[in-house]
Amino acid sequence: MEPYEKIYVSTEFLETEHGFIGCTECHGGDPGDENWQTAHRGVVRDPTFPDADRACGGCHEEIASEAGRSLHYTLAPFDRTLARRMTEGKPDIAEKLDEAQKMHCAQCHASCGQCHVSRSDYVGGGFLSKHRFQKTPPMDVVCASCHGGRVFAEYTGLNKGRSPDVHFDREKMACTACHKAAELHADARQTATRFDLSLRPSCLDCHPEAASEASGIESHRIHRNRLACQVCHAQDYKNCFECHVGTDQKGLPYFKCKPSQMMFKIGLNPQKTERFPCEYVVVRHPPASPSTFDFYVKRALGNFDALATWKPSAPHSIARITPRNAACNHCHGRRELFLRPADMQVWEQAANAAVIVGDEAVPAPVEAPAAAGSK
């Protein structure tokens, strides 16, 4: 976007409820100063971050208070992940990692303003609609800004040779059709991952018959509570294996990733719960690696293998018929589909022990039923 496109405030905005609030109420500055350069001193670009209550709490007290503790605001699981993987007993490493996080990781947060008024700082900002507030943020601009590399591309069929998710292809469902405001605003300070959110959507929210003994679908009856839905109904999805961050000669942050790979891997569910009791899940490899932060400090993640590198995932590439469920033996007996030690570096194998599928756990091939009338 051109700079002028990012900051244009329309006259229509001035006639809205938010437009009747003076600019300085939220952004600061001196409205009595006729010199625009000095009048803008102290102006806050995004008054909704890091304190959501500051600008929004006066009118939206409950929402702002909750949203300020959400995954999008706090990125709390990232902090806990780095703390687990960080080299112990090195205060200087903690200091350098904090610097790196502020330079890179913190750029991915999404404040109230960066969902409902503008695009994320991560993609350069810019108003969504000339400062007019959007109650439901546009999926292709807001959600795609941060989730475009994997989820949005899977969902809308941007990955070459892969079809869009059936929910988008047939119904044009937006992200908010499943991910409601209550989930997006939910307090997530104590969650280890997004999968721990109690408000996380489930396929069974809309398809309860799939888990019923009387569903009438034989494969559902056989695999009930054994397979996550995505094991049968997801297409290939993107996996990343290495990312490095740093700054250029001008001090601008950058990241470099090795080419991603379209893959499909089934792993064991490392943490069964009442809500998620299945034995087999789809697993994805994130881009982190032990050397991600080497630009800032060498050997910062000395305990990198304290956590798994192949993690349960919910690919947004759903289809009714996929290469896995077109026939039983497209999955049964296909050892290469199931996560194995050979799929990872030697140092990763111990960390992923809970998700690796041993040879004995790979379903055996199924004999095809005899044709009618055959002996």
What does this structure look like?
This protein is α+β, with helices and mostly antiparallel strands. The chain has two domains: 1-74 and 110-201, no CATH class; 223-363, no CATH class. 27% of the residues lie in helices and 7% in strands. The protein is built from 15 helices and seven strands. The protein has helices at 3-7, 11-14, 23-27, 36-39, 52-56, 61-67, 71-74, 76-85, 91-103, 113-116, 139-156, 166-171, 181-184, 218-223, 229-233, and strands spanning 237-239, 243-247, 253-257, 261-263, 266-268, 280-284, 311-312. The strands form three sheets. It has a three-stranded antiparallel β-sheet. A two-stranded antiparallel sheet has the order 1-4. Strands 2-3 form a two-stranded antiparallel ribbon. The longest helix has 18 residues, at 139-156. The protein is globular, with a radius of gyration of 24 Å. Mean pLDDT is 89; it is low at 370-375.
Helix content: 25-40%
Radius of gyration: 24 Å
Share of residues in strands: 5-15%
Report the structural category.
Answer: alpha+beta
**What is the ordering of alpha helices and beta strands?**
HHHHHHHHHHHHHHHEEEEEEE
Number of helices: 15
Catalogue the unreliable spans: 370-375
Distance between the termini: 71 Å
Q: What is the typical, i.e. mean, pLDDT?
A: 89
**Gross morphology:** globular
**Largest sheet, if any?**
3 strands, antiparallel
Q: Order of strands in the sheet with the most strands?
A: 5-6-7
Number of domains: 2
